[in-house]
């Protein structure tokens, strides 16, 4: 029994088989080309991703160097903001301190004025009291002078009880 080709077994004629092989060869070649292109693209992607990796690594290394040197732009901005905030805080504290000193000084001056007013009021009260005492004494002395009779030798003829009261007030 003659051996039939596998293509014949499948129900294809030899011409169909040749066409099919040609098509499948072309498809295989196209597949291989696509695979090569994909490999090239993957290689390109690998190259790109590797290049990006090294660029990022270089960028981060530069940023780290800038940080260590203290010249990184973001660090400088943050440092400047912190310095400005600190100087503002110092200014606020100084202003608050001066304000409190002014308040204490004003309160001190008010208390001095109140003390001076109290002292002046007390002086007036004491002065008025002493003047009233002096006037009372003066009146009593005048009254006693009228009530005492003097002799030519300077002695008294009679004493009146009002002088005893004056003596009591003076002591």
TrEMBL record:
<keyword id="KW-0539">Nucleus</keyword>
<dbReference type="Pfam" id="PF08598">
    <property type="entry name" value="Sds3"/>
</dbReference>
<keyword id="KW-0805">Transcription regulation</keyword>
<feature type="region of interest" description="Disordered">
    <location>
        <begin position="1"/>
        <end position="49"/>
    </location>
</feature>
<keyword id="KW-0804">Transcription</keyword>
<feature type="compositionally biased region" description="Acidic residues">
    <location>
        <begin position="27"/>
        <end position="49"/>
    </location>
</feature>
<dbReference type="GO" id="GO:0005654">
    <property type="term" value="C:nucleoplasm"/>
</dbReference>
<keyword id="KW-0678">Repressor</keyword>
<dbReference type="GO" id="GO:0010468">
    <property type="term" value="P:regulation of gene expression"/>
</dbReference>
<protein>
    <submittedName>
        <fullName>Uncharacterized protein</fullName>
    </submittedName>
</protein>
<dbReference type="InterPro" id="IPR013907">
    <property type="entry name" value="Sds3"/>
</dbReference>
